[in-house]
Predict the structure.
Amino acid sequence: MAEAKARSITPERIKARIQAGHMDTVAVRRHLHAHPELSFQEHATAAYIAERLEAMGIDVRRNIAGTGVIGVVNGAGPGRVVCLRGDIDALPILETNELPYRSTNPGVMHACGHDAHTAMVLAAGRILHELRQEWNGTVLLLFQPGEERIPGGAYLVLKEGALKDPAPQAIIGQHVTPELEVGKVGFHAGPFMASSDELYVTVKGKGGHAAMPEKLVDPIIIAAHLLIQLKDKFEAHRKDRPLVMGFGKVIADGATNVVPNEVQIAGTLRTFDEDLREELHTLLPQWAQEICSAYGGSCEFEVRKGYPVLVNDEALTLRMRTAAEEFLGKEHVVEMPRRMGSEDFAFYTQVLPGSFHRLGTGNPKKGPAKGLHTPDFNIAEEAMAIGAGVLVWGALAELGG
């Protein structure tokens, strides 16, 4: 931060600007919360973001990975390039919150905080633009679509080369988390979030009248054996390594006296080891076929490859953590454990230094925090001032480094 400090940019100046615009940040978040759109359908969201950026005087690039937006903030002269990433899509969840800004799109909800992520990157962009004569380089404000849906908006952003002109030397992201109280931010260098793949299994047998089991190859019974035995094989292979395989959907579309010909099963696979991940992509279908064959049936097993392991660059994450400690005080910065959740931000960390941290949004005084991806999820909005500030100070640290 030597260069930024020499130009008199201080945490106090940033905090004052954040507080001056905080109600506007809240209004942005509430507008987005009230008008959520699903992955790769964020047309109105993208238009709103572009309008906000243009009103600030920030250059805008549209149609990034379909419905994304990039704002380009240039400093006083040439220098490093840093990208701040926010995600913009919502989830297919019916909101149960009774709020004046609750979702007006039934069955769609910002239940993962992407409304807040977007509002904070906009707030950070505003401040960086206002101070642009006091720093050198370029900050890209990436408003990425489709984080919640394979193949992931991050994958498409990279595939189409949207971050090549100019190419950032670092990318920074953050995610709200109710497990931390407002005022705290959490970092973890190295592997931070697991890979995620979708598993789709079709168990095939011979259906018919339930009163004539001797004529059946019952796919429901086979599916029951498959779920138990596949889990046993997986656990034996896991050997206490951080892996998860779980199934959350089973459809046997029969009736009380009708056994169907097949059963549909869907689940997830999570790992922290890319080599082991690839190995399981081969082993799981083999094991499943062996189990089904033993009971006279068969199966089709599709592994739909999702997001890789999110690996936070150690040097960049240390610098971001140091910047957060400068901005907030060391007592407000904590070490986060690894998480079995996944994030398509992981794609960025495969090709350039990336750092992804957690922003506390829980408020114990208002009762237990509601979990992510739940119909009553909400955040303590005062946390957005902290998140925006950490993004600004972290970007300046990278630009001045």
User: Anything to note?
Assistant: The mean pLDDT is 96.
